[in-house]
Amino acid sequence: MTVSEMRPWKVPPATVVFVGGGPRTVGLLERFAAGAEELLEGRDVHIHVVDPYPVGGGRIWRREQSRLLWMNSMTSDITIFTDESVECEGPIVPGPDLASWVAGEGAVILEKAGLEPPGPMDFPPRLVQAEYLAWVWERVVRDLPATVSTHRERAVELTADQRVILESGTEIAADAVVLALGYLDRLPTASESAWAAQAADAGLTYIPPGYTADVDLDGLWPQAPVIVRGFGQAFVDLMVLLTEGRGGWYDECDGLLTYRPSGDEPILYVGSRRGVPYHAKLGYTVAGTKPVPTHYLTKEALGDGPLDFDRDVLPLIEKELAYAHYKQLFGAHSERVRMPWEEFAKALDSWTPVTAQDWGHSGFDVEPVAAPSAAPPPARGTTAAPPSAWGQLTDAAFAAVVAGAVPDPVDRFVRREVDRPLDGLRCADRERFEQFMVELIEDDLLRRADPSCSADLAVFNALLSVYSVLSRAITDGQLSDEDRVRKVEREWHGFFSFVASGPPPRRLEELLALHRAGIVRFAGPDLDVAIDNDEFVARSPGVAGEIRARAFVEARLPSPDVLAASDPLLRGLLGSGALAADELFASDGTSLGGGQLKADSRSRAVRADGSVHPALFLLGPSVSGSAGSSGFSRPHFNGPGFRQNDAVARDLLKLLAPTVRKEERHAS
Question: Which InterPro entries does the record match to this protein (predicted)?
Fold first, then answer.
């Protein structure tokens, strides 16, 4: 007897509401379509997607933004489709990555949009990604065994009986709801509110942290000084919008850019904690160099119990990055080393990094040492390998080994020095400091374009692998809230972004051109800003003097804090206890802000009472355990976001199917 013969009545259509229509929803619905034939049992489904921005790109990747803004990834490094590398239960349904799409079906679409098709190694305008995502959305809708409705407005409430209420008053009764809200706006912090009040009283322009593409920059006057704190992606976007965005342009002669001002640009004095821009993206590839499983920072090394980040995790990260750097250096550039890799690897194994809370300069000088003589053979009758001839190596001792094995300091890797290149700098002459900064940025551009420095690429790939291990440790609850927020989300993620998520090289070339034109000045590290005599005053301990201006921009994204989110839907669900997010405190009682929304291992919402909602799913950067939220997956990389999307899509399909499987009933 078939399922339909056992069921004399017609099963009514199922309704699913997706709140948020960005890339996460698109990717999840692609997986939903892939698994529907196997799991949905032919049931009719109506899908509603609610987002005030166009579905596909959502807010961040919408078409309505400046064509001057670029992505931080190369065209060949972006896909939204599964491929043979993805390890998931559902069927693989290949589709074009961005580079293949640009060279094929996307070429006509981009031409109609007035966009130049980027090459595989180019960093495309965000509008190119907007067109790609819009095309992917249309393909996904075509493949879905469901009717699809989109609602260009906000969802403001989700009732206990699963009715989604929109701003317009429309109500949608849902069998399942997926919240894929992306990056959330948040209420101002107490400090930001105080800054805004003081600036308003003094008649000053203060721009708090925010998404640069959405910020009103009209208060930044032409040719007037502006203090900018932040040297990452938000600053690069600000720089572009206040220069080319105000009518300036670049000339290029013999490889040197010259900026031609329009006269409407302000003068940007930029500094930050490090005082330097993020490293440029690597401008080369090396065959066979790709992310590999970690060597020291492994699940086995971390174990299953609670971890202290400084004591248990940071030393393994230090060794992991050093291992990646030196293994590539010794293997690909053996003419630049003075020791066999096998012997150096023993020294690396014997190194016990100091668990330092300071991510700054290492603080020691070393004399090079040679490799020890070979260890004696084991005694007759023993089977255990002899201990390393190096013994236990301290930081200073290992640095001495490195100095002997790697003669040129530019070939050495010290994570603290990479992280804080200006640490300890004291400069009494601002012009000399600015010249030093120019040379530092020029050196970075040369190095990041040079395949002979391929150890940098190995470190980049190791960073990706380290991130994967850290994400698992966080998901498994091995790190305290304080370590997760302060050590991982702030310090470690800051280092990762500085090294691996910097701008395209062209942007740093433009930065130097703007400096030569007098539009950008360098303010120094550890930049402190205050209000004095109705002016903003910026000072750096690394550079003598002060900078005064009537405008101050915090060029960074808002600190994530779910409990401070301004979204009315989330605030209502948190207030009613339908969603849970802890307010986090450090061991000394200091507030760390609101944590992420709680979800179980299957991405189902956890309520304030600890129970799990079987038909409310949470995905995105504000959700605990949400994979792939930091960016788009690379082709042939087995992206964790794909794996999670597939698992959630299959859970949704099983939930909506007419027959409820025994195992699903028990699981819910």
Answer: FAD/NAD-bd_sf, HpyO/CreE_NAD-binding, L-asp_N-monooxygenase_NS-form
Calpha distance 88→82 (Å, rounded) = 9
Q: What is the CATH number of the domain that holds 142?
A: 3.50.50.60
Tally the domains of the chain. 3
Q: Which of 500, 519, 539 is the last residue of a domain?
A: 500
pTM: 0.89
> What angle, 0 to 180 degrees and rounded to 10, lies between the N-to-C axes of helices 395-405 and 341-350?
170
Q: Are 369 and 458 found together in one domain?
A: yes
How far apart CA 6 and CA 485 sit, in angstroms, is 53
Let me know if residue 432 belongs to a domain.
no
The parent domain of residue 342 ranges over: 299-354+361-375+398-418+444-500
At 189, phi and psi to the nearest 5? -75, 170
Q: Tell me if 134 sits within 8 A of 33, measured CB to CB.
A: no
| pLDDT tens digit sequence for 373-410 | 444 333 333 333 334 567 789 999 999 999 999 999 99
Give 217-265 as a 3 state SS string. CCCCCCCCEEEEECCCHHHHHHHHHHCHHHCCEEEEECCEEEEECCCCC
Give the residue among 482, 535, 654 at the shortest CA–CA distance from 201: 535
- β-bridge partners, 593: 584
Residue type, 36: A
Same domain assignment for residues 103 and 69 = yes
- Rounded to whole angstroms, the Cα distance separating 161 from 145 reads 26
Of 182, 79, 184, the closest CA to residue 129 belongs to 79
Please write the tens of the pLDDT for every residue from 201-234. 999 999 999 988 899 999 999 999 999 999 999 9
State whether 24 and 75 are in the same domain. Answer: yes
Q: Residues 322, 413: contact at Cβ < 8 Å?
A: yes
57: which 2 tokens? Answer: 């790109």
DSSP string, 159-184: -TT-EEEETTS-EEE-SEEEE---SP
Q: List, for residues 76-103, the tens digit of each pLDDT value.
A: 999 999 999 999 999 999 999 999 999 9
How far is C-alpha 590 from the geometric centre of its chain's CA atoms?
26
The pLDDT of residue 7 is 47
Do 490 and 542 lie in one domain? The reply is no
